[in-house]
Write a structure and sequence with these properties.
Layout: E1 3-4, H1 8-13, H2 16-27, E2 37-46, E3 52-60, E4 71-75, E5 79-83, E6 93-101, E7 103-104, E8 114-116
Parallel strand pairs: 1-6
Antiparallel strand pairs: 2-3, 3-6, 4-5, 4-8, 5-7
Length: 120
């Protein structure tokens, strides 16, 4: 059974309204067709540096802990980047994370899928 986890800094700093929203979105997901590593985009925004921030649930639907290190990723055709998460995601756990893209297209498709490219 998939469980929700929060990285330590997220757990200490996330606003209660945001925690409730993340939990609610997680609880409404079905994991019957999930396998491997997948993502559910929760929202996107732009920071003061005009970087694209994509917040997503990272789902580890495998039987092993997973580390994401120097992993190339895309958000649809509009954004690319390489990411390392500072925490191992336990087997059958999901964790919210914000991916900061500095390289992105001006046209944003909010329904685009967040994906890993290859196995870096």
């Amino acid at each position: 059974m998939q469980q929700l986890m929060f990285e330590e800094k997220w757990d200490k700093t996330i606003a209660e309204v945001d925690r409730t929203r993340v939990k609610s979105q997680f609880e409404n997901l079905s994991f019957e067709d999930h396998s491997g590593i997948s993502f559910t985009v929760l929202n996107y925004a732009f920071n003061h540096r005009h970087h694209l921030l994509v917040t997503a649930l990272v789902h580890n639907c495998t039987d092993q802990p997973v580390t994401i290190k120097n992993q190339s990723m895309t958000w649809g055709t509009q954004a690319t980047g390489t990411f390392t998460l500072p925490i191992e995601i336990d087997a059958h756990h999901s964790m919210p994370w914000t991916f900061i893209f500095t390289d992105y297209a001006s046209d944003i498709d909010q329904d685009a899928a967040l994906k890993m490219i290859g196995n870096n």
